[in-house]
Design a protein that fits this description.
Length: 381
């Protein structure tokens, strides 16, 4: 099962839709233990969220310590009738491996296991290799990577560098490495009014009008024009709701939700201050509940990012671009512990019906990961 394509097939056959383990972590544990990895199954839970199984597997007990981070949980398959194949069959057809999780990100996990097995077979690496695999990346991300990292810190285990196997390449394997991510802020805006008859607005207080004005204020000016490493921050209204089915009634309350993806010109706190200032300028009462699921971060070009880029170039003959596009990933937790970049398969079909990746790309990614490990331990020798 250290053949990356065969392992990827077997992982896809494990229906590990968040938060269910589905046998995927069992399979990895059975594969890694004979290679000499010490495996720890870590179950975490928190109020209001389902319990989640995670796996931390480590080969070696000394520095330097290279970690691969990934997730075996996948999003639901959606309408099965729309799939060309069984989404959990792991079928190979037309040179591609089809199935939920092929791109995001069971193919990359299998590729790294194959690479690690080759490194181990060549002789004990001058340091340690670990895999931090969660079952909570596609879900709330409460009982997964962050808690495993806290567990490692409590044990005194230090990571020196980490690659996250997210599908980082937009069009072809090796065309991009993610060296940072934007932050994400979610807002719930509530405006209270006074219910009344639509024909007698002077006897009521319409919260919808004030809500619309407040949303217009949030959208009137761009949050910024971008920074050296990031594209401009964005704010998207995702819901407006008054719960009103009557056309002649002014509602008593209006709600809206929005999401802001922000670059390194902001922190979650500074962006919240900015948004509240815009709302205050409109006037009138409101409530704003804010949650920040991740701050923006950047692993500067050079150093570890260059090490990975060099491995890609040497293996594939293609120089990858450094990218900070996309949403959030578990790298937002890992960046507080060590340098981290994201490099995996082509993500064009992730979360889609007929998700698939090239079989040759899985094999090539295993070679890239093998070269990353070789360069990492050579640089630390």
């Amino acid at each position: 099962m250290t053949d990356p394509v065969a392992l990827a097939q077997a992982l896809i056959r494990c229906p590990s839709v968040t938060p269910h383990e589905g046998g995927a972590l069992d399979l990895l544990e059975r594969t890694l233990t004979p290679l000499g990895f010490t495996c720890n199954r870590l179950r975490f839970e928190a109020e209001g969220t389902p319990p989640v199984e995670n796996l931390y597997a480590r080969f070696g007990d000394r520095a330097p310590h290279f970690c691969f981070a990934g997730h075996t949980d996948v999003v639901p398959e959606g309408a099965r009738a729309q799939w060309s194949v069984d989404p959990f069959a792991g079928k190979i057809s037309d040179g591609a491996l089809w199935g939920r999780g092929a791109a995001d990100m069971k193919g990359a996990i299998a590729a790294f296991v194959g690479a690690a097995a080759r490194i181990v077979a060549k002789g004990r690496p001058q340091g340690s290799i670990s895999l931090l695999i969660t079952g909570d990346e596609e879900g709330p991300a409460v009982n997964g990577t962050k808690k495993v990292l806290d567990w490692l810190k409590a044990r005194g285990e230090k990571l020196d560098a980490c690659v996250v196997g997210e599908p980082s390449c937009p069009q072809a394997l090796g065309d991009a490495i993610k060296i940072g991510r934007r932050g994400s802020l979610n807002g719930v805006l509530t405006v209270e009014g006074v219910q009344g008859h639509a024909a007698y607005p002077h006897l009521a207080d319409n919260p919808v009008h004030r809500l619309v004005a407040m949303l217009s204020a949030l959208l009137k000016e761009p949050l910024d024009l971008g920074s050296e490493a990031f594209e401009p921050s964005t704010l998207q209204i995702t819901s407006v709701d008054v719960g009103n089915i009557a056309t002649n009634v002014i509602p008593a309350r209006a709600n809206a939700m929005f999401n802001a993806r922000f670059n390194d010109l902001h922190s979650g706190a500074s962006l919240e201050t900015h948004l509240r200032r815009q709302l205050d300028a409109v006037g009138g009462g409101y409530e704003l509940a804010v949650s920040v699921s991740g701050e923006s971060f950047l692993t500067p070009p050079g150093g570890f990012a260059e090490l990975v880029a060099g491995a890609v170039a040497e293996t594939l003959g293609r120089r990858p671009d450094f990218s900070t596009s996309g949403g959030t990933s578990d790298a937002r937790f890992i960046k507080d512990h060590c340098p981290v970049v994201e490099f995996g398969l082509v993500g064009a079909t992730m979360h889609k019906v007929d998700e698939r990746v090239s079989v040759k790309d899985i094999e090539a990614l295993a070679r890239v990961y093998e070269r990353v490990l070789e360069r990492f331990f050579a640089a630390k020798a």
